Amino acid sequence: MSMKYFNARNVIGTVVVLLSCATISIAQEGPDPAQVSAMKKLDFLTGKWKGSGWIFVRGGKRRTFGEMENIGWKAGGLVMTIDGKGKARNPSKGKERSVHNAFTVVSYDRAGGYRWGAFLSTGQSTVAHGHLESANTFVWEMEIPQMGTMRYTIKINGNKWDETAARSTNGKKWIPFFGMALTRQ
């Protein structure tokens, strides 16, 4: 009986060693070059950005806010993170309050696009799909039931960030509802 235990133990130990060697071998191969190349194309977004924005809220009122975006690389440049925070003055109380607090993870999908995973402090989250429209323009879209398609476009011109968002229920007529103008810090 002790011989079976001893043999089983050796077998388990051997399997663990082989799996460890396989994992190390795979890790040493490195990331997919297409993935690395695709993510490097988003480098124009990185940095600390600060400025203002506007959004249409219920009742068609336009509200303004201050915004900060901190964008950087993780996982050896295969993942981009975006930490966005917006604040505005409460019109009735005059106190500054948080109006936007989001964390986004961007990665390259081997199917040929970018995955935009956004998490809000309200508990909401979404996964959208994006693409490069040009060397300095990134676009992502998502479907929201009862609202249609939401399209966000970020254009970088030097140290200026211009972001707009519009929605459409038919893919033809787009109604703007959001905009930001930021400057690289």
Sheet with the most strands: spatial strand order: 1-2-3-4-5-6-7-8-9-10
Largest sheet: 10 strands, antiparallel, barrel
Any idea what the shape is?
A: globular
Order of helices and strands: HHEEEEEEEEEE
Task: Give the helix level as a range of percent.
Answer: 10-25%
Give a count of the beta strands, DSSP E runs of length 2 or more: 10
Class from helix and strand fractions = alpha+beta
Written account of the structure:
With 185 residues, the chain is α+β, with helices and mostly antiparallel strands. The protein folds into two domains: 2-30; 34-184, Beta Barrel (Lipocalin), CATH 2.40.128.20. 19% of the residues lie in helices and 57% in strands. The chain has helices spanning 2-29, 33-40, and strands spanning 47-57, 61-74, 79-89, 96-109, 113-120, 125-134, 137-144, 148-157, 160-168, 175-184. It has a ten-stranded antiparallel beta barrel. Strand 4 and strand 5 (113-120) form a beta hairpin. 12% of the residues are buried.
